[in-house]
Specification:
A five-stranded mixed barrel has the order 1-2-3-5-4. Helix 1 crosses helix 3. By secondary structure, it is an alpha+beta fold. The protein is 37% helix and 32% strand.
């Protein structure tokens, strides 16, 4: 039950965030200057299972893939435990959709990085797999 409540609460927060980010795009140069392009490395996680239960890693790959492919928001979890909500680019959502194929894997995500109300966001423009030393 706690997992469901946690997932629902986070999903409600995430559902409101893209609208805020989208509004910011239309607010002029001041709002746009807060965003900058970057490439960030980390693991693709689904927000419901990660936030509620801390689930991540290869042992959760099947669950993560199922969750992101059924609409659970994705995030990038960095080595220093920063969590970035991944959002599709308005002009080309293909790189965002490609992220779904890397569920529970290490990747380098490129895109416009911003922060709204404490939530880090990457508007995905590219994604590439990252080889890990453990392989």
């Amino acid at each position: 039950m706690n997992k469901l409540i946690g997932a629902l609460a986070f999903a409600a927060l995430v559902a409101a965030t893209p609208a805020v980010a989208h509004q910011g795009m239309h607010m002029g140069a001041k709002a746009a200057s807060a965003s900058k392009p970057a490439t960030i490395r980390g693991e693709i996680v689904d927000t419901g299972c990660y936030v509620a239960e801390g689930m991540r890693g290869a042992k959760n790959k099947e669950c993560t893939a199922k969750c992101v492919n059924t609409g659970m928001p994705m995030a990038l979890l960095t080595a220093d435990n920063h969590l970035y909500l991944l959002t599709p680019n308005h002009d080309n959502a293909d790189p965002y959709e490609k992220c779904k194929g890397f569920a529970a894997e290490m990747v380098a995500v490129t895109g416009t990085v911003s922060e709204r109300n404490g939530m880090r966001i990457i508007d995905v423009s590219d994604v590439k797999p990252v080889e890990t030393a453990a392989k």
